[in-house]
Amino acid sequence: NMLDGIVALGAKSAVVTSACVDGQRCVIGRRSDLPLEGFRQRGKDGPYFRIDYEEIPMAFHGTGDIFSAVLIGHLMNNETLKESTQTAMRVVSSLIERNRAQKDLCLGIPIEKCLDLL
Fold first, then answer.
1. Which residues pair with 20 in a beta bridge?
2. Does residue 61 contact residue 105 with C-beta atoms inside 8 Å?
């Protein structure tokens, strides 16, 4: 319902991270039923998707910004919304895993040291 409401407001697509559906952590998304000019869509996939994940119990500042940047970059590289979301999830997860020993999580992810993951 939340995704439908966002699209009803005029968004061409929407992605909600850190959702919980039936007790499972997931990212959910919906693309518009209308063609998205300049972006590839797969009609067979339908407008909705859900990608489950296991939560990593750490809270780095800036991971949402990184997720958004990776997602948009991959959309601009002609990947579908679902594919772009999967890539963004993989990148953020890898960044967190690589930096989990960092003492001060408030400093965020040292992105300049992790460009190979992008």
1. 25
2. yes
Side chain identity at residue 53, one-letter code: Y
Name the pairing type of β-strands 24-31 and 13-21. antiparallel
DSSP H helices in 1-118: 2-8, 63-76, 81-98
Q: Locate tokens 């992008």: which residue?
A: 118
Torsion sign across C-alpha atoms 15, 16, 19, 25: positive
Determine the Cα–Cα distance for residues 62 and 48; give it in Å rounded to an integer: 26
Condensed to tens digits (0 to 9), the pLDDT of residues 57-113 reads 888 889 999 999 999 999 999 888 999 999 999 999 999 999 989 888 888 899 898
Amino acid (1-letter code) at residue 83 = E
What is the Cα–Cα distance from 17 to 89, expressed in whole angstroms?
9
Q: What gap in Å lies between CA 14 and CA 6, rounded to an integer? A: 7
Coil, strand, or helix at residue 101?
coil
Selection from 12, 16, 97 nearest residue 49 by Cα: 16
Look at the block and give the residue holding tokens 């190979």.
116
Note the pTM of the prediction, 2 decimals: 0.85
